[in-house]
Structures are given as C-alpha cells and as structure tokens.
Amino acid sequence: MRPGSARLARANLDRLPPAVRRPAYDLSRVTPGIVHLGLGAFHRAHQAVVIDDCLATGSPSWGIVGASLRSPGTRDALAPQDHLYTIAVRAAEGTEHRVIGALLDSVVAREKPAALVERMADPATRIVSLTVTEKGYCHTPQTGDLDERHPDVVHDLNNLDAPRSAPGFIVAALARRRALGAKAFTVLCCDNLAANGHTAQRIVTQFAALRSKDLGKWIADNAAFPSTMVDRIVPETTDADRDAVSSALGLRDAWPVMTEPFTQWVVEDRFTAGRPDLAAAGVELVSDVKPFELMKLRLLNASHSALAYLGYLAGYETIADTMQDPHFARLAAQVMEQAAATLTMPSGTDLAAYRASLLNRFSNPALHHRTWQIAMDGSQKLPQRLLGTMRDRLAKNLPIATHALAVAGWMRYVSATDEQGRAIDVRDPLAAEFAQLAREAGPVAERLAPALLAVEKVFGPLGAEPRLREAVTAALGRLYRDGARRAVESLVSA
Known about the structure:
single chain; 494 residues; alpha/beta; five-stranded parallel β-sheet; three-stranded mixed β-sheet; 47% helix; globular
C-alpha cells in the first residue's frame, strides 16, 4: 500500500491486521524500570523485544526509557507514535511483523543531560543498559582502560552536571544515588567488548576515581556490572523497508527495525536491585559468560568483519551477496574453524553446529546487511574480533594467514581508496590518522602495513610481533597485486 497519514500509535492498535502481533499486556499499566543508553536499531530488535516478552508475563514495572546520546532522529521518529515500533523478522520464506510496546519514552542526552541523569538516579531505575558501540566507552580497546585524554572524558570530568559520554552519565547518576542514600543500579553492557561487564566496570570506576576515590570505591563495592553476550543481525533500516512495513501494517511506522529469526542473549546473573524474569523470555542466565562471549566475537563477529572488508573491496554490497561467492563463504568458514581452535567451551557446546548456523544466517537473502555498515569503527573492533585469535594461534605456533588477510583487508579499506581508485567513506574514530598514514606510505604494502601496525591504540605490542608483521604485510601485498577476489580465492584454495 502507499503509506497514508495514519500513524502507528496506541489509539490505532485495533486497526492492525490480525497477522501483526501486538503487545500482549496493558500498555497503560507499564512503568519504567530500565534506562537504556544508545537507542539504536540493535537494542530495539534485541533487548527491547525480550523486555516486551517479560512485560507480557505480568511484570509491568520494567518498561524502558531510551536515550540517544547525540542524534534526535530516533526520538523524533518514535515520539509521535507513542514510542511504538515494528520489528520485521525476515527469513527466506517470508516476513513476520510485531509491534513492540516496551519503550515508554526517549530522550536526547545532548539536549537535556541533567534530565537524563535525574531519570537514571531515580530509585525506580534498577537497570541502566547500554548499546553505544565499542567507541562509546571512551576507552583504549587494547587495554580496556579509560582513555583519560578522550575529549568527552575531559569535558565530563569538569562538567559532571552536564555529561556527554556514557561513562560520564553513569558516574553522574551513581554519584546522585549515593548522595540520596539509594541503592546503586545494575549497569548492563550489551556491546561487543571483551569481558564487557568487567570492562564497563573498569572504565566507570576509573572515571569515578578521577572525580573522587571514595566515589570510585563506592561504585566498585555497590554497583553490579554483569557480563553479557548478545547476538542478532540487525541491518540498517532503509526507506524501502519503511514503505514495506507500513504497507503490511496499514499504518505508517517512521522507524521500524529489520532483523533475522535468530536471537540469543546470555547474561551473568548478577543484579543489585532486581531484574525482570529474563529466563521466561528465553535469556540464558549463567555464572560465567566469557566462553560464550569469545565464541561469538571470534566466530561470528570476526568472520563478519572479514566478509565486510574483503567483500566491500570485491564490490559486494551486502553480506548475503558476498556469501553467494563460494570462495568468500569458504573464507568465513575458515575464519571460524581457525578461531574455534582457540576456544575452551563448556561441555555440551556444539561449535560445529554453531558455525553451520552462522553460515546459514549470513546467507539469508532477506537480510540486506551492508558490508559498509559492518566495516564501521574497525579500530575499536579488531582487537576483540581478530587480534585475540591471532595472538592465541601464534602462542600455539599455528598459522595465521586467514586472519592476516582479514586484517590486511581492513588496512586496504581504511586507506580510503578502493580497488577502482574511488574514495571510501571510512567511518572510524581514527579515520583521519589512518588516512594520513596511507597518504605518507602510498599503496605499498611494505610501508603501509608497518605504519598501521604501529598504531598502539589498535595493535598494542602485538603489532611488533615479527610473525604477525610478516603475515599481514604479505597479505596486504597480495591485495594490492591481485585484488580482493583473487586473494581470497588463492587463500581458500591453497
């Protein structure tokens, strides 16, 4: 249908077609218990769906207030429709539509930082969750420590009444809770960080200690930072997606989210002020998330990054397109196979089945997950996704050629010029530094690879390891000489 003026909203829920699922609870009874920082598509397709299921089991005090740290786009799209939105679950056989009601309100942090701090400090807020991407933690990925020179950190340390960063907001709100004599909330990190709960705790307590050692200690002693593993593929929403969803609903939804049928959430069961019945909504509550986290980072995320950089260079727009090339499909499988050798999983974990499921998910033709989108912020992602596996394989004297080609693909990508000489729109916190290094080195592997490997924020001491330097330099040389398609074909056919 041609989307008309009628908007998805509470008053219009009874106009939805029977096939469209809608909230299975009384929306008017839901009150906020969670503040979520980073109100993007991933949260709305993952954690918010789980909370929507929890609300349906009779726990109305766990609604979500979302906060966008910078852009007003999501708030502006969702506020006119009572923060309802559609999740479109796409599989080869068709699309299912569901309206989510867990999101009660949204704020733009930059517009009213004090109001967001006040909401987080309210004792009714028992969980503050985050999907702010790796760069949102203002840390050094190689060490996991707070980057004290980060501009937002410098600002927030001097202006804690009007913070900009996620760590700044969390510390400001916890400081207010402490002053009120209220219990600390749980900080639930849902980003792809190594040991994400421990990393978030270290960053937050380091930030707090720079303000006050006593505050840092109080947070360390009283707040909980459970680790998590989150898994669902969520492409960016296009105008064509909006039109398709609006046609299916018979109502206009300004910002639906697209996703796949698969979803997984593994959570360390450690909360300071209660939690919803996550297990009833399919969440795996465990005592140790680390094995599952490494499994996902080194199998799914690493192969995704390899496909993104090398697939983009080869001219493929989406991951599904890239997987249609049998050599790239074999590349993804090879990244997973070699990473699996570095993992120690709990008994009963079927890594072979997990790898097979990933290859099937990557090939889903209904998901238009762009290689360019996945390629963003690589400087923050490489240490967790690729470099950890390379370090562990080198320690066991195992070959690293497959991962070296993926890293070389990243190097070729951040040089900001593709194989046809066209500019690449590189989105990365260190993009300007990489572009400068690429200009100075030129398209010469023997110069560019060492220059990028010397970037301490990305590679740390691993960048000086002779075997890694040799493997990455050789792989980058093949990319310059043969192009991504032939380099991948040569690697997987060897």
